[in-house]
UniProtKB/TrEMBL annotation:
Keywords: Cell membrane, Cleavage on pair of basic residues, Endoplasmic reticulum, Membrane, Receptor, Signal, Transmembrane, Transmembrane helix. InterPro entries: Renin_r_C, Renin_rcpt, RENR_N. This is Renin receptor. The chain crosses the membrane at residues 282-310. It is a single-pass type I membrane protein. The gene is ATP6AP2.
């Protein structure tokens, strides 16, 4: 786990403290100034100022490699228990706290054609190539990374090589779109980006780790990630956290529902122009039980009151109709 860039008030401590895979979402939430359900007893992150938070957090997961040599990184920690994880909980927190500001939430895995967007991301990244067919078509257009990268042993025709180059192209296009929409970095809502790259894993499976294709791709990716982190850090006014998680392979497969960019154009919430999901938080179960049992108690109370009113004798049980009794006692 590499802390590539971070502002001064997000303090990563130097050390070899291992990070568990399932705790990475909590680590991302803490770097953004959010609270977590369980305390993270990990000394690598020092508590920062209460009223300062990064404007963005970018998490890049690189599959197929144990580690990357990224000079000038803030800190590096070993990864233990490499189980699959998502930032869905962090995305829900960002959306629930800053729903009116429509922050950017982008989760993308090009190899699986998995895309999830919320807030302003729907408008900004609408033209971002997502499917492998779209990305490969993008490689042949102007501004392609093929014209600037030293491919060396990598081929433009091999499937595994194209998958890796497609992921590099996506990183390039994300920074290009952010430079075109610089206003995103000036609002008050934090943005969240989660990218999963598996091109190296495919190259390792096809060619092997000792192959020149794998070595060249590793060097290219390290250079691209370094520039990607610097560009994002600069675009957000030196107020963004960029983390890189490298994992050889996950211990268990992750099953998750996803949607494509075509589906994101369908407005699931008619009251919102940004295709926002309906609001939901962790107190839903508590509120539901309170409302449910309160309604049951009120219904029983109404039934009991109606029964007693129906069987009431106005002459004896009510002061209002006391005068209807013919035997009035005079004192």
């Amino acid at each position: 786990v590499l802390g590539l860039t971070a502002p001064d008030f997000v303090s990563f401590q130097k050390g070899d403290w291992p990070v568990s895979g399932e705790k990475i979402p909590d680590l991302v939430a803490l770097t953004m100034g959010f609270s977590v359900q369980e305390d993270l007893s990990w000394p690598g992150l020092q508590a920062g100022p209460l009223f300062q938070r990064p404007r963005a957090n970018v998490l890049v997961v690189v599959r197929g490699v144990d580690g990357l040599t990224l000079p000038q990184s803030v800190a590096s920690y070993p990864l233990e228990n490499p189980v699959p994880f998502t930032l869905d909980s962090v995305a829900e927190t960002v959306h629930s706290l800053f729903a009116e500001d429509t922050p950017v939430v982008l989760q993308l895995a090009p190899s699986e054609e998995r895309l999830y967007m919320l807030g302003k991301a729907n408008a900004v990244f609408e033209d971002l190539p997502v499917t492998l067919q779209q990305i490969r078509a993008r490689l042949s257009q102007d501004g392609s990374v093929l014209t600037s990268l030293p491919l060396n042993s990598l081929s433009r025709n091999a499937e595994a090589d194209l998958l890796f180059l497609s992921e590099v192209q996506v990183l390039h296009d994300i920074t290009a779109l952010l430079q075109r929409h610089r206003h995103l970095a000036k609002d008050h809502s934090p943005d969240l980006y989660s990218l999963e790259l598996s091109g190296l894993e495919e190259l390792s499976r096809v060619y092997g780790q000792d192959s020149p294709q794998y070595r060249d791709a590793t060097a290219i990716l390290a250079s691209v990630l370094k520039k990607f982190g610097e560009d994002v850090y600069s675009l957000y006014g030196n107020n963004a956290v960029v983390e890189v998680v490298t994992v050889k392979t996950f211990e268990a497969p992750l099953t998750r529902k996803s949607r494509s960019i075509l589906e994101s154009k369908q407005i699931s919430n008619p009251g919102s122009p940004y295709n926002l999901a309906y609001k939901y938080n962790f107190h839903y179960a508590v509120v539901f039980n309170i409302v449910l049992w309160l309604m049951i108690a009120l219904a029983l109370a109404v039934i009991a009151i109606a029964y007693n009113l129906w069987n009431m004798d106005p002459g004896y049980d009510s002061i209002i109709y006391r005068m209807t009794n013919q035997k009035i006692r005079l004192e």
